[in-house]
Specification:
Blueprint: H1 2-25, E1 39-46, E2 51-59, E3 62-70, H2 75-92, H3 104-121, E4 146-149, H4 153-164, E5 169-172, H5 180-184, H6 195-199, H7 207-217, H8 224-233
Parallel strand pairs: 4-5
Antiparallel strand pairs: 1-2, 2-3
Length: about 240
């Protein structure tokens, strides 16, 4: 009887140790603080082109630094996100700030990664100052011969041609970065029967095909005369 009791106690002791170890292994230990007491936590968010990974430094429940360690976003469009949003997050001590116009998906992924790091820290952050989105506006009157709206590939081309013709030109862009769809496309341009196609052995592309594709892509809502001019002059422009 005593032997059975000892065996039972031994089994219970082993099971107790196993459950204790399992419980301990289920929680990630907080990273050790440096000599100044700063702790660094990693976070991941989903950007437009893949994961955005960050390291968030915390001291006394405040965000002291944010570093992007890995991303696949467009460098030009992501730059204001990783600079302006970093400043906003650190000022408010929170990942709940407005996204950057024109880089919405990248902004959301970046903020998601920061929030992930904050959540992993288990800390309750101290509220910081609110970020003001309004700025003082000053009315300025200026005169130009030509005003080009939109600083994408087409806008740049139009502005350059007008300037070359001697006009006083201004090029306006509402987004925080210039380039438009041309920037996002990686600099690719549509032009039929070009030297790149010929080098690849493509010899059956024509201005007529380009015209038809453009009209179809625009649900046949485009101005036929303007689209025709585009298709027939794309290569020379």
């Amino acid at each position: 009887m005593r032997t059975h009791t000892k065996k039972l106690l031994s089994i219970l002791l082993v099971l107790s140790l196993m459950f204790t170890l399992a419980a301990c292994g289920g929680k990630d230990a907080a990273p050790a603080a440096d000599s100044n007491g700063v702790q660094v936590f990693e976070g991941v968010g989903q950007g437009k082109h893949g994961d955005i990974k960050v390291q968030v430094s915390l001291l006394d429940n405040k965000i002291t630094d944010i570093k992007v360690t890995e991303h696949k976003e467009n460098e030009v469009l992501a730059e204001p996100v990783y600079t302006q949003l970093k400043q906003d997050v650190m000022a408010t001590n929170s990942a709940k700030v407005d996204a950057i116009s024109g880089s919405t998906v990248t902004s959301k992924g970046y903020l998601e990664a920061i929030q992930d790091a904050i959540t992993k820290s288990g800390l309750t952050l101290v509220a910081g100052a609110a970020v003001s989105g309004s700025k003082d506006k000053e009315e300025v009157e200026q005169t130009y011969d030509v005003v080009v709206i939109g600083a994408g590939g087409a806008g740049f081309s139009a502005a350059i041609e007008a300037k070359s013709a001697g006009a006083n030109v201004v090029l306006l862009e509402k987004m925080p970065a210039v380039g438009g769809n041309t920037l996002i496309s990686g600099g690719e341009m549509n032009a039929p029967d070009n030297w790149v196609e010929r080098a690849l052995g493509i010899t059956d592309d024509t201005a007529e095909l380009f015209y038809n594709d453009t009209m179809k892509g625009g649900d046949t809502l485009g101005d036929t005369k303007m689209v025709r001019i585009l298709a027939e002059n794309a290569l020379t422009s």
